[in-house]
């Protein structure tokens, strides 16, 4: 259906996502589950990362092991909900750099408004992951992808918890070179551009702001 989309349909992910969707799940458990699901998504989203040879010595013999250069990895959460995904990625790649892009969606126009951007040095060899739990219209994520491309990133993946078909379609149209990894592809957007069935506003649920 979508060329650049990978839905990581693992039983552990679907179990944890079902708990997150429940409106009775509080912020503490919501944060913990988001971290855990992000860790599992990261496993799949990093399959393409190149490795290099390193000579090591086991208790028995010398051998050549495989390593990744996680210092060449950059993680960029979209504030504020994307912050909930950072720890899950860093638990697997602790030497990765972290940048931040602040974007909110204007409630009247549904257009992105950028209010903050701070990125580490990136280039064409950087493995860059943009984090945004809810890929709804795709407008905010698309804007963030423009920002990291302008900074010099070429190898970019977008990781999200839940995606709507409209958002995936928008990203593929505007950024056909970006791979998308999600735990679920939901049905559609409602009239207020919220994902159905979704889980509500991820930022509000993370930080109990509503």
UniProtKB/TrEMBL annotation:
Its EC number is 2.4.2.9. InterPro entries: PRTase-like (IPR029057), PRTase_dom (IPR000836), Upp_B (IPR034332), UPRT (IPR005765), UPRTase/APRTase (IPR050054). It comes from the Bacteria. Transmembrane segments: none annotated. Pathway: Pyrimidine metabolism; UMP biosynthesis via salvage pathway; UMP from uracil: step 1/1. GO terms for cellular component: cytoplasm. Binds 1 Mg(2+) ion per subunit. The magnesium is bound as Mg-PRPP. GO terms for biological process: UMP salvage; uracil salvage. It catalyses: UMP + diphosphate = 5-phospho-alpha-D-ribose 1-diphosphate + uracil. It is an enzyme of class 2 (transferase). Residues 7-209 form the Phosphoribosyltransferase domain. Keywords: Allosteric enzyme, Glycosyltransferase, GTP-binding, Magnesium, Nucleotide-binding, Transferase. Uracil binds at residues 195, 200-202. Allosterically activated by GTP. Belongs to the UPRTase family. This is Uracil phosphoribosyltransferase. It comes from Mesotoga prima MesG1.Ag.4.2. The lineage of its organism: Bacteria, Thermotogati, Thermotogota, Thermotogae, Kosmotogales. The gene is upp.
């Amino acid at each position: 259906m979508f060329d650049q989309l990978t839905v990581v349909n693992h039983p552990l992910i679907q179990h944890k996502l079902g708990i997150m969707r429940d409106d009775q799940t509080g912020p503490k458990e919501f944060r913990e589950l988001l971290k855990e699901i992000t860790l599992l998504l990261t496993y799949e989203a990093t399959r393409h990362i190149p490795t290099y040879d390193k000579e090591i010595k086991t208790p028995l013999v010398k051998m050549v092991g495989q390593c990744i250069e996680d210092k060449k990895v950059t993680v960029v959460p979209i504030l504020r909900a994307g912050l909930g995904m950072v720890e899950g990625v860093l638990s697997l790649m602790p030497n990765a750099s972290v940048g931040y892009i602040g974007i909110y969606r204007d409630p009247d126009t549904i257009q992105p408004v950028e209010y903050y951007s701070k990125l580490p040095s990136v280039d064409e060899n950087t493995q860059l992951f943009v984090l945004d739990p809810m890929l709804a219209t795709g407008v905010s994520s698309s804007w963030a992808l423009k920002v990291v491309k302008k900074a010099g990133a070429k190898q970019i993946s977008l990781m999200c918890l839940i995606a709507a078909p409209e958002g995936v379609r928008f990203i593929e149209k505007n950024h056909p070179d970006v791979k998308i990894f999600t735990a679920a592809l939901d049905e559609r957007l409602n009239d207020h551009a919220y994902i159905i069935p979704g889980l509500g506003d991820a930022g509000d649920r993370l930080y109990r702001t509503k």
